[in-house]
Amino acid sequence: MSATNYSYRVSSVHCVACEQRLRKWFADDTQIEALTIDVPNQRVTFSARGAGLDAHFRSELHAAGYTADP
Amino acid sequence: MNARRVLYLVSFCALSATAATAFEEPPAAAEARAIASRFQQELGGKLKAAMAEGGPVNAVRICKDEAPAIAARLSRETGWQVRRIGTRVRNPQSGLPDAWEQAQLADFQKRISAGEKPDTLSRFSTVDEPAGPYQRLVAAIPVAPMCLACHGDASAQPEALRAALKADYPHDTATGYKIGELRGAFSLKRAAP
């Protein structure tokens, strides 16, 4: 089964500290194969094995203090 | 100031400049090296604990399950792609070096043959790849005494260990190592900024 990309624009991600904070937050989430944080474009992409993880990632982003744009 | 003192000062300055150039490395290299070191320490700690608790059979699961889990966690946490590569591998689906990594392992082998200590070997470089430039680091993993239980002479392994290894790694080629040989490397890469 190939990985699915869940990509979000998170406009409150604006610096390296935000990236580090998110990376620490998601470090133990074993559903994530790769986490790409594009700070200049304020885009967070989770590459994960499993369908239906959109709600999970939105909820975790919120819990980490960030909100995915609609 | 006499001529000898002047000569000494000039030599000293030249040597200092050379040393500064030789040891000056980009911050990304130090960052990658620190991550490789964390990987080594975490994995080593878990291996030692598992060996003490239940011997080599118990430790097999550490290299099989815990090592990839540590690598994945470090990858998520740091943004570097972290993994281990081997000169010979237990599982051909993971741990096989790519072309750049193969070249670095071959270079490490040469340097070890020339007398360098294997645990000091590493290489940082920015490499042009089809997807763009990548910052890459490899740091050598030498065979330590603890590794020999599973990676030493296969004919000397206890039957239970041989059965466990065969069950988990039907295509295992990573035996026959001796202490101090090059087992592989920690390998890290990320897109160059």
Count of DSSP-assigned helices of chain B:
5
Through-space gap between termini of chain B: 50 Å
Average predicted local confidence, pLDDT of chain B:
89
Shape of chain A: globular
- Rounded to an integer in angstroms, the radius of gyration calculated over CA atoms of chain B is 20 Å
* Largest interface by Cβ-Cβ < 8 Å: A-B, 14 and 9 residues
Question: How many strands in all of chain B?
Answer: 4
Helices and strands of chain B, in order, run as: HHEHEEHHE
Give the spatial strand order of the biggest sheet of chain B: 1-4-3-2
Structure description:
The complex is a heterodimer of chains A (about 70) and B (about 190). Chain A has a 3-stranded antiparallel beta sheet with strand order 1-3-2, covered by helices on one side. Chain A is about 30% helix and about 25% strand. Chain A has 2 helices and 3 strands. In chain A, β2 and β3 form a beta hairpin. The model of chain A has no long low-confidence stretch (mean pLDDT about 95). The radius of gyration of chain A is 11 Å and the shape is globular. Chain A has a domain at about 5-50: Alpha-Beta Plaits, CATH 3.30.70.100. The longest helix of chain A has 11 residues, at about 15-25. In chain B, a hairpin with a 2-residue loop joins β2 and β3 (about 130-140). In chain B, α2 crosses α5 (about 160-170). The longest helix of chain B is centred in the first third of the chain and has 52 residues, at about 25-80. Chain B is globular. The N and C termini of chain B lie far apart (about 50 Å). The interface between A and B is small, with 14 and 9 residues.
